[in-house]
């Protein structure tokens, strides 16, 4: 019993795996210029019989077949699946085609219907072995080619596939790929229905290729087909690789005419034998695949499906990454994080890169990986780190970024020696750059993005010490008109979390504003927020900054290393703005557009901040002695309730 269960599970798993590669897409139908007319009962019966036979045969054959039914009112039928999806997915495609073809061509004696993985056709006339080059259909992708020479290379490549399919292998099918550049690959497929001869197939495919200059010269991806052949070209591997050397015999329609009845009997037997297994696997598909598809999309599916990702993010071959990082050597390693390890590399075109490799044991998973790809690929700003591409080969999940030679703000700010490089002019420039990056995320980008993990280690510095916000693994996009959301999964870094997020799971643009305020205070004082209360001050950074600001001594917060470079009015203004950003009540915090305005104007009457958040990280105000707490709370000679300038 267990063996039977495992066998069925294996069969269905293979079926579901094929399904997960792509969804079934209807391409079109053609009624062969016939008019609607009442069909005889005998002809309709023969059509129904031949459709049933093709459904049952599709699961057990090599992915194609053609036959005839009836001595009178004869029906000629053919189905042909793409060679990479034979078996149960072929049957699934043929089943859908058989159900829908009467709807697309009602009361027609001849009809054909295409999906992306199969074609089904029947007629009252013998069409076996006849090349059909008219009419043709085509579909093109949304991306435009970036190099005009690609069109010529694409045509030459597809012509080589035609030669291999019809002359070198006689398979009437071939798939392959080639490297257009060091970071870009292209893939192609050619296929004919198996009733054609080699010469007929070549004639059909060349006719399809001749259509490319008419419709597809400016487009990167295209698909052209007729009733007997098809060609497809794109920048992602849309086919499932298999062994192309196992040639499938080509039958001769003329010699098979008299074998139709025998073959029909075999198909009928196959229908009953495979019926229960087919229903079981289709049931498993409908339940598991669609349920899984609704709950969680596979990261590989997201990257490789253009409709879902809709970005121009290049797929970088694994071999290129391995060569650039010396196979992830220790010498190339830059560090580790929650995602995994980061390596330095150099692409063949000379660009320096940072390679982020998801660890098998990483606490961050597919959702965070997908966030990185979805957000950074769509967002372009001088203060956001640039994503060059990704790699998903051999179970790897790799992101390739531009290399930041000066590492992170954390790396410089909290090191006694490196902090000396950060004079006040550099720190103010970093503060302004981060503010502009956040403003872009919140208001100016195609997406309204909440970062949710802004901190010094996620601010990278380029060669000129310009800041670039990185690590969008926890980012969330808001819909138009949406101002707030909540989650039960609190993710982020203690010390930078807004209190409403840390305690209630509520997040909004004001959550990022809070994190920005903390980051500004850290940048000014050169001290970590987490751990500040362990110092001689015995209170959190936010409470300490607020207290000395109330006392008119806010310059005491400043890093002593800034004494020779600071400008008092600018330091005071930045501390004031930071305290506005870390107010406990989110509604009182400014927006990032307010912040950018305040940072950009020298003389501006700023509103007075309210008390900052009580909690910072795992330190609560309640942890302080009561006498100390009372003193801090009483020393608040401020007047509030001033509307922020726009």
Fold topology:
Elements: H1 2-21, E1 26-30, H2 41-58, E2 64-69, E3 75-81, H3 88-104, E4 111-115, E5 118-123, E6 137-140, H4 149-168, E7 173-179, E8 185-192, H5 198-209, H6 212-215, E9 222-225, E10 229-234, H7 253-256, H8 260-295, H9 299-304, H10 306-309, H11 318-324, E11 333-336, E12 340-346, E13 352-358, H12 366-378, E14 387-391, E15 398-402, H13 409-413, H14 424-444, E16 448-450, E17 459-461, E18 467-469, E19 476-478, E20 485-486, H15 499-504, E21 506-507, H16 509-525, H17 541-550, H18 568-581, H19 592-600, H20 626-634
Antiparallel strand pairs: 1-4, 2-3, 3-5, 4-5, 6-9, 7-8, 8-10, 9-10, 11-12, 12-13, 13-15, 14-15, 16-19, 17-18, 20-21
Helix pairs in contact: 1-8, 2-3, 2-8, 4-5, 14-16, 14-19, 16-18
Mean pLDDT: 77
Number of strands: 21
Structural class: alpha+beta
Q: What is the domain tally?
A: 4
Query: DSSP strand (E) fraction?
Result: 15-25%
The radius of gyration is 32 Å
Low-confidence sequence ranges: 1-22, 243-311, 615-646
CATH architecture name of the largest domain: Orthogonal Bundle
- Alpha carbon gap, first and last residue: 73 Å
The CATH homologous superfamily of the largest domain: Transferase(Phosphotransferase) domain 1
Using the alpha-carbon principal axes, give the shape: elongated
List keywords for this structure.
646 residues, alpha+beta, Killer Toxin P4, Chain A, Phosphorylase Kinase, domain 1, five-stranded antiparallel sheet, 20 helices, 21 strands, 16% strand, disordered N terminus, disordered C terminus
């Amino acid at each position: 019993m267990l063996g039977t269960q495992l066998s069925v599970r294996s069969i269905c798993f293979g079926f579901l795996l094929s399904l997960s590669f792509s969804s079934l897409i209807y391409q079109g139908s053609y009624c062969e210029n016939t008019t609607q007319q009442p069909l005889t009962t005998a002809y309709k019966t023969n059509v129904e019989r031949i459709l049933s036979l093709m459904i049952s045969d599709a699961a057990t054959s090599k992915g194609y077949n053609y036959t005839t039914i009836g001595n009178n009112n004869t029906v000629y039928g053919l189905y042909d699946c793409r060679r990479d999806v034979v078996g149960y997915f072929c049957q699934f495609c043929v089943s859908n085609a058989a159900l829908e073809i009467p709807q697309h061509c009602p009361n027609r004696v001849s009809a054909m219907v295409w999906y992306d993985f199969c074609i089904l056709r029947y007629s009252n006339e013998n069409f076996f072995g006849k090349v059909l080059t008219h009419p043709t259909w085509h579909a093109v992708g949304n991306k435009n080619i970036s190099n005009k020479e690609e069109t010529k290379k694409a045509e030459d490549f597809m012509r080589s596939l035609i030669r291999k399919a019809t002359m070198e292998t006689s398979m009437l099918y071939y798939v392959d790929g080639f490297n257009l550049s060091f970071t870009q690959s292209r893939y192609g497929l050619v296929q004919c229905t198996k009733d054609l001869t080699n010469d007929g197939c070549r004639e059909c495919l060349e006719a399809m290729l001749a259509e490319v200059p008419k419709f597809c010269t400016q487009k990167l991806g295209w698909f052209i087909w007729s009733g007997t052949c098809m060609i497809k070209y794109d920048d992602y591997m849309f086919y499932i690789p298999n062994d192309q050397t196992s040639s499938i015999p080509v039958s001769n329609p003329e010699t098979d005419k008299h074998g139709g009845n025998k073959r029909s009997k075999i198909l009928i037997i196959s229908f009953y034998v495979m019926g229960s297994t087919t229903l079981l696997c289709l049931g498993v598909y409908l339940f598991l695949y669609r349920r899984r598809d609704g709950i969680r999309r596979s990261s590989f599916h997201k990257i490789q499906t253009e409709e879902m990702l809709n970005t121009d993010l290049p797929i970088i071959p694994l071999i290129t990454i391995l060569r650039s990082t010396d196979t992830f050597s220790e010498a190339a390693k830059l560090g580790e994080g929650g995602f995994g390890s980061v390596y330095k590399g150099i692409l063949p075109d000379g660009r320096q890169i940072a390679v982020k490799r998801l660890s098998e044991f990483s606490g961050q998973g597919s959702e965070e990986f997908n966030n990185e790809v979805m957000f950074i690929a769509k967002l372009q700003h001088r203060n956001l780190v640039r994503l060059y591409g990704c790699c998903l080969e051999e179970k790897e999940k790799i992101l390739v970024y531009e290399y930041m030679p000066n590492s992170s703000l954390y790396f410089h700010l909290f090191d006694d020696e490196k902090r000396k490089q950060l004079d006040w002019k550099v720190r103010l420039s970093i503060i302004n750059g981060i503010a502009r990056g956040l403003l872009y995320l919140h208001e100016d980008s195609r997406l309204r993005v909440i970062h949710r993990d802004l901190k010094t280690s996620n601010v990278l510095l380029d060669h000129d010490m310009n800041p670039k916000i990185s690590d969008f693994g926890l980012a969330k996009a808001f819909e138009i008109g949406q101002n707030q959301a909540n989650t039960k999964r609190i993710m982020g870094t203690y010390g930078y979390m807004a209190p409403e997020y840390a305690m209630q799971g509520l997040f909004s643009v004001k959550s990022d504003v809070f994190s920005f305020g903390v980051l500004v205070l850290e940048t000014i004082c050169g001290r970590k927020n987490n751990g500040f209360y362990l110092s001689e001050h015995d209170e959190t950074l936010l409470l300490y900054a607020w207290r000395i600001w109330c006392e008119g001594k806010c310059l005491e917060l400043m890093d002593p290393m800034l004494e020779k470079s600071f400008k008092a009015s600018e330091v005071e203004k930045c501390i004031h703005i930071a305290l506005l950003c870390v107010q406990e009540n989110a509604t009182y915090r400014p927006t990032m557009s307010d912040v950018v305005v305040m940072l950009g104007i020298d003389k501006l009457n700023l509103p007075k901040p309210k008390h900052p958040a009580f909690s910072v990280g795992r330190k609560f105000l309640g942890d302080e002695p009561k006498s100390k707490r009372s003193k801090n709370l009483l020393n608040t000679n401020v007047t509030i309730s001033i509307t922020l300038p726009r």
